[in-house]
Amino acid sequence: MNCFSDACVFHSLILCLCLQGALRQQPFDSSAEKPQFPGASAEFIDHLEFIQPNVISGIPVYRVMDRQGQIINPSEDPKLPKEMVLNFYQKMTLLNTMDRILYESQRQGRISFYMTNYGEEGTHVGSAAALEPTDLVFGQYREAGVLMYRGFPLDLFMAQCYANADDLGKGRQMPVHYGCKDLNFVTISSPLATQIPQAAGASYAVKRENTNRVVICYFGEGAASEGDAHAGFNFSATLECPLLFFCRNNGYAISTPTNEQYRGDGIAARGPGYGLMSIRVDGNDVFAVYNATKEARRRAVAENQPFLIEAMTYRIGHHSTSDDSSAYRSVDEVNYWDKQDHPISRLRHYMTARGWWGEDEERAWRKQSRKLVMEAFERAEKRLKPNPELLFTDVYDEMIPPIAKQRDAMWRHVQQYKEHYPLDLYEK
């Protein structure tokens, strides 16, 4: 009886989807002298003409503030309260401080790997502030600020990078691969773009639950070159999912500049081809990012459709601790973005002009933020590593014989060569 009921529900769903598709189709008129092809909406022409990629002008970049923090169009000012703007600034600078300390930690051999967020802090905080806490986040690997804005504590950032016993991932992931179920932040994966089709599936589930939630999926312009990006775009559009695709176009996919990655007009230009509502914003303008994400979220929920946001920014730091960016870009280029067009300095100009922030507040906060990060750093270094038994758990509900066999073999090896395995550094 249950199987019969499930089959009925399945066929009803298919029928419903087919009917919805039929309703969207244009009425067929065989007498009309215009194309009747169901695959596209177009007109006939009687002369040979190829569409040239550079004829259409580039998609404009939406911004609210100029580089000096001045509001350009008063009607676009989100008019956020002072406390919220100060929180933006403190989260962005705290992230910056944490980056510097953990980057140096890797250089000193204390952790194995790290990726900084220099220059992209505005994309994190502006987008995170526009979301609801229940919205589901799929990150790539440079969205630490989103998690920080949601309340992820410094101790857990450090625990993950040090893979100690407090790490929510139990020491199984390489550094900067954060995740937190309580904060609706899906654990980051190393392979590029795998999160994009996953986000499309998750947003379809959210749509069917009808829970007033959206899914946001972050990725870089380099990841948009992966096949997974195209699958995710197409699925989300055809299934009409409440999904925000958030592309951080920071100019470089590790050592590959954008002019070697694609010939088209960035990533936002791809949106219309897939049926995505699209916008390009100044990623160094935290208010522009906030406005665009907030409106996209509102419409995604109300209209059940995906949106593509391309945030134009710049990666000031190296791609990771495995990269030396001086090999493929000039010092002058990096200095320009660091000194002349940085999201943190732009927001500070805005606050200073309103009398909300000054040199005294800056010195006090810089000192306090460094103290907070260093205290968490020291606690993380002193913690024990996770129990080695955790290598074999969380795969099956009950440990199956092949896994138990691997575990026993591991312990025999450790006992045989125990001088190479300092078990006193691990939790019992």
Describe this structure in words.
The N and C termini lie far apart (51 Å). It is built from 14 helices and 8 strands. Helices cover 43% and strands 8% of the residues. The strands form 2 sheets. Strands 2-1-3-4-8-7 form a 6-stranded parallel β-sheet, with helices on both faces. It has a two-stranded antiparallel ribbon with strand order 5-6. The chain has 428 residues and is α/β, with parallel strands linked by helices. It has helices spanning 2-24, 82-107, 121-129, 144-149, 154-162, 195-209, 227-238, 258-261, 271-274, 286-303, 331-339, 343-353, 359-382, 401-416; strands at 136-138, 185-186, 215-220, 243-249, 252-253, 256-257, 277-282, 307-312.
Could you write a compact summary of the structure shown?
This protein has 428 residues and is of the alpha/beta class. The chain has helices at residues 2-24, 82-107, 121-129, 144-149, 154-162, 195-209, 227-238, 258-261, 271-274, 286-303, 331-339, 343-353, 359-382, 401-416; strands at residues 136-138, 185-186, 215-220, 243-249, 252-253, 256-257, 277-282, 307-312. The termini are far apart.
List keywords for this structure.
2 domains, single chain, Rossmann fold, 428 residues, disordered N terminus, two-stranded antiparallel ribbon, six-stranded parallel β-sheet, 14 helices, alpha/beta
Percentage of residues in DSSP E strands:
5-15%
DSSP, total strands: 8
Strand order of the largest sheet: 2-1-3-4-8-7
Q: Which shape, going by the Cα principal axes?
A: globular
Radius of gyration over all CA atoms, rounded: 25 Å
Low-confidence stretches: 1-23
